[in-house]
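Here is one chain, start to finish.
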Amino acid sequence: VTVFAGVKIYFDCKIGNDVTLHSGVVIGGDGFGFAPQGDGTYQKVAQIGNVIIEDEVEVGANTTIDRATMGSTIIRKGVKLDNLIQIAHNVEIGCNTVVAAQTGISGSTKIGENVVLGGQVGVVGHIQIAKGSQVQAQSGISRTIKDENKKWAGAPATNYQDHMRSQIRVNRLPELEKKIQELEKKLAGLQQASELYMKPQQ
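Its structure:
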């Protein structure tokens, strides 16, 4: 195991062989668990689980992996995590998955093997992402992805090809707006001419 300066590993966490933890990594901090109370305050929920990092994992600088509320947050063998990633309580990341910088993965989400998440991807909690999924940077995953080996993009994320076709249409909106304005002017002129034609002669 290679541990660089400033790494913090909390109690009961388990680190496998050939793991690299870059500066500022925090393993096993409390998950974000607070129960709303009747008076509008929040009561902290005890986080009594741990984090398990399997063999050949690399974790980039200032990435945080929270301990589970109960059970384990699990980073499987061969996972590669970039800098500045937030992994919440009870998340499981499958073998050989790659996650780019500034991605946030909410609690209890399960990510399959060989998934690629681009930078600044947001993932909601309590969903599953199928094996081999590829998610474009700055996408938002708001529901379970069941189909394996597919590409996704956008917020909320949709099929990559559908998203790109939509973007082409969005980029044409200024042109289409101009055409609509021209048609409205022509229509107004025709309507005015029609009203003059239909006006009774004195």
